[in-house]
Amino acid sequence: MIYNTTAESQKLDLQQSPYSVDSLKNFHYDSLLQWPANGYFDKFRSDAALLKQALAAYTNTEASTVAEQVFGNQARDQRIGLLHKSNILYERAFLHSKHLKEIDRHLVSCIERLSILKMHFPLDGGRTQQNLEKTVLQLEQERRTEEINFWKDSAEIRGKLFEDAGVYSATKRRENMLIGVEG
What we know:
By secondary structure, this protein is mainly alpha-helical. The protein has helices spanning 6-16, 21-25, 45-55, 66-120, 127-182.
């Protein structure tokens, strides 16, 4: 199909887009919570529950104190953010541990093959032995790099986690102070 103008082609593209105005009218926040039943997204179930809490309207109509009415939503949202950041830290630590175990497994395998090679051909010093020694050095370097990268990533996440914990603590403190004034 040949378009007469660029505007017509953009209009047709927008109508066919999954992000068109019509499709966004039917968008509900619940669709964000529809994780696949199995597979990789199972790891995000805790975050899906937190997302559901964050998207849920705060409906504490029985808030008996002004403090709960003023600071309740803010404290709730900050707590959800803290839980989310701790989930991220846990996932990153889990991946780091898994990656280190894989590197260590491969490293032990190479060291075993190298020792066997040295026992059977002690004076050979051939290309196979050199390749295995090179592989061992590369794996040790990869392990150190992974540890440094994990430290950098986790330091950033931990920093944000403690920052947010301070903000949450301050909010709860203000809420408690306001409760003290009411009573």
